[in-house]
Amino acid sequence: MNNGFADLIFENGPVVTVDSNDTVAQAAAVAGNTIAYVGGKQGAEALKGPHTRVIDLAGRCLIPGFNDAHCHLGAYAASKLRIGCGPDSIGSIEELKKAVAQRAKATPVHEWIVGWGYDQTEMAEKRHPTRWDLDEAAPDHKVAVFRTCGHLVVANSQALKDCGYDRNTPDPEGGRLERDSGGRLTGLLIEQPRTVLWNKTQPTHEALMKAWPLLNDDFLSFGITSAAEATGRLTQEIGAMQDAVAQGLIQLRIYFSARWAGKGVELGKTFIDTGLKTGFGTEKFKLGWIKMMQDGSVGGCSAAVREPYPGQPDNCGICYFEQEELDQMVLYAHKAGWQVGIHAIGDKAVEQCLTSYERALQAFPRDDHRHRIEHYGLLDQAMMDKTKELGVMPVLGVPFIYQLGDSYINNLSLERTAMMYPLKSLIRRGIIAPLSTDAPIIRPNPMHGLYVALTRKTKRGQTIAPGEEVTIMEALRAYTAWGAYASFEENIKGSIEPGKLADLAVLSGNILESEPEEILKIKTDITVIDGQVVYERA
Known about the structure:
- By secondary structure, this protein is of the alpha/beta class.
- About 30% of the residues lie in helices and about 20% in strands.
- The chain has 18 helices and 21 strands.
- The strands form 4 sheets. A 7-stranded parallel beta sheet has the order 6-13-14-15-16-17-18. Strands 7-8-9-10-12-11 form a 6-stranded mixed beta sheet, with helices on both faces. A 4-stranded mixed beta sheet has the order 3-2-1-4.
- Strand 11 (about 175-180) and strand 12 (about 185-190) form a beta hairpin.
- Helix 9 (about 265-270) packs parallel to helix 10.
- The longest helix has 17 residues, at about 205-220.
């Protein structure tokens, strides 16, 4: 506090505290990096000094900063350096080929050409690109184009050769190389084999240092003040991220996972055996959960499901681990004191995760573990009951529905999406389920997630899991306070209460009184982190 005065005062608009009582105050004051006062306008005015900045909300909302509980900051930064292949930029394979050819003209032949974000269901041709499409565009370069889910990639012939993949390469466990009727590789790599391309195309430390400010600007412009990094490659990506935080290139608070890569307990032991565990670090950069992968994506028809995908009688998705392997990995990390988080979208994969958690807790009981299931897509009532019983926390992919929901319906049917990302059912059971975007899988715009939480509507107006709509206060809590809970930080952030960190967002309208369609138009006017205005919309 500046000589007993506030540094910032917000007044003349609803202060949506997201406290335990859903209090809506008239004003709030910030001193230093913490919230000093929440209440009536008169009380805030009493803290006004000669150097206090008074922000007139003029009817706009002040809310806690958004917390994206599962995203990929490194991949998002990398995507800013790559060919943007999303439907807003590229609508056909022909357009994709032109974009690749254009990039090839400016790229030395020994360097990779990488694209990110295509969705075959949004392409005019309604199919994946092939190696031959990419060969036509850039025959001499190595080209990799990742699907928006990140679980599939299309490689051209030069890239396949560089990876050592040919028609004689067997499908690895936990993945598949797509082949045509003649046995030739089409270039589409599903799950495990795509990790080779992922590793080969990672940007350098120097490139990432140029991309971090672009990521930072985007997230701040959406009012996001905290984010959970879910990739956790403890090599150049995490090192570059730590450097960026130290240099102020990233102002977000980051809770980052440590990735358990590969199969078997031994591959995960090295990092766990250092003795480090969840919670190590600072309020700006903190070590989070141990991240495991169990299946793929619905959009890529690789999420592990109990019943085959319609029209694909032999495809029930892909499981990375057998139950016993997953049990061993979870138990090892659990006993070492880690929070565990497992990517699982399909109902088969979610069931396997719950089984592993139950067995670990039976063998080694532990209070307040806050183990996570990342995404937690296709469910039934029994799974939700078991989730509650075990104290497991779903980090929910509700925001996916807006951008990706139409492909879910195409790949599964409306009937099979009837229990997909069921936020209301989880809330009724008393389950804490923070929201996340998995960016760059989808855009990190929280307004899309709030809109879907209220309506369950896709971008094209189809409804997924009707009856799972929640209130705006419930949706805001899942996007703020519950994100803080997911990182064991609910006592220092996630709501607007005296003594908590001053991480705040001023929205362009009163979200409490806005119709759902109007929420899509709301923007962030001001973002505050640590009591400092870090973004202000022109």
